[in-house]
Amino acid sequence: MFSIIGIIVVFGAIVGGYLMEKGNLLVLLQPAELIIIGGAAAGTILIANPPYVLKQIMQGIVGVFGGSKFTRQRYLDSLKMLFDLFNRSRREGLTAIEADIEEPAKSKTFSAYPAVIKDHHVLNFICDTLRTASSGAVDPFDIDQMMELDMEVHHHDSAQPVAALSTVADSLPGLGIVAAVLGVVITMGALGGPPEEIGHKVAAALVGTFLGILLCYGLLGPIAANMATAAEEEGAYYHVLRVAMASFIKGTAPILAVEIGRRATPGQVRPGFQELEKLCRNKAPEAAQAA
After folding, report:
1. Sign of CA dihedral 129, 132, 138, 140
2. pLDDT digits (tens, 9 = 90+) for 90-140
3. 8 Å CB contact between 81 and 100
4. pTM for the complete prediction?
5. Which of 10, 86, 190, 255 is the 20 to 30 A CA-CA neighbour of 132?
């Protein structure tokens, strides 16, 4: 929502200031310049990136216009879900949750938290870790290292579309100059004609430079920055899951393990101690359904 408001403010301020100076808005409507710049930018994306990165770029752009997935409630639900799993494991052993981690879609524990079920990366991160721990053949320190490696790979994957879009944004001023140069070439061919015609062609050429700079610093650059922030938020969320699971696997009590995860939560979305404790002390989903 804020991204949409920001775009409206950027373009509204530019158009409003231009009109205040008695500018002719129709002069800025140069489809040919936009085709040159936009088409060349799209071509550079296709040249530089494989299909899976292009798909991630589109998903990232769509995500910019929605709210953050990693809200305070998302952290509360995730910590409560981990507590339910940890609590059953502590009472009955890690083998008690084997069915949950092997088929999470059929698990009552996971099904109580739709946001986790829908995010297959998060689901695999949790299930693979607990599956490894349940084998009993891997040292807790090594499991922690596996989680760190998993997070590094995922962070690298998340950074690829951001870098690709930033590169395209940085190229837009140059592409705007290309469009302007082409406009100057056309203008030179019209020398000797009516002054009004030459003036119109010069204005059209300058619009190319204007569009390249505007699209870079007023649209694609901020969108790429927003995508980078989203990737950092996702990394922080994975870190919370990691420290909570690592603590439990090392032998920490379930309630203390999720408390360690709560302490690792970013301050702006961190739930309170009593709020999380009260939530965890409630009945687990299986117990509630049985009741």
Report:
1. positive
2. 888 777 888 888 888 888 888 888 888 888 999 999 999 999 988 878 899
3. no
4. 0.86
5. 255
Instruction: Report d(CA 115, CA 226) in Å as an integer.
Output: 21
CB atoms within 10 A of CB 23: 12
210-249 per-position pLDDT tens digit: 999 999 999 999 999 999 999 999 999 999 999 999 999 9
pLDDT (mean) for 80-88: 92
Structure tokens at 200: 């119109």
Nearest CA to 237 out of 109, 116, 84 is that of 116
Buried b (16+ CB within 10 A) or exposed e, 171-193: bbbebbebbbebbbeebeeeeee
24-28, long-range: CB < 8 A, 24+ apart:
27/200, 27/203, 27/204, 27/207, 28/207, 28/210
Which tokens hold the place of 30? Answer: 């140069």
Three-state secondary structure of 52-85: HHHHHHHHHHHHHCCCCCCCHHHHHHHHHHHHHH
Whether residue 8 contacts residue 65, with contact meaning beta carbons closer than 8 Å, is answered with no
Write out the two tokens for 41.
């930018």
For residues 41 and 87, is the Cβ–Cβ distance under 8 A? no
Q: Are 245 and 126 in contact (CB under 8 A)?
A: yes
CB-count burial class (<10 Å; 0-12, 13-18, 19+) for 90:
middle
Torsional class of 22: left (φ above 0), alpha (ψ -120 to 50), beta (otherwise): left
Please give the biggest Cα pair distance in the chain. 91
Total number of residues shown for the chain = 291
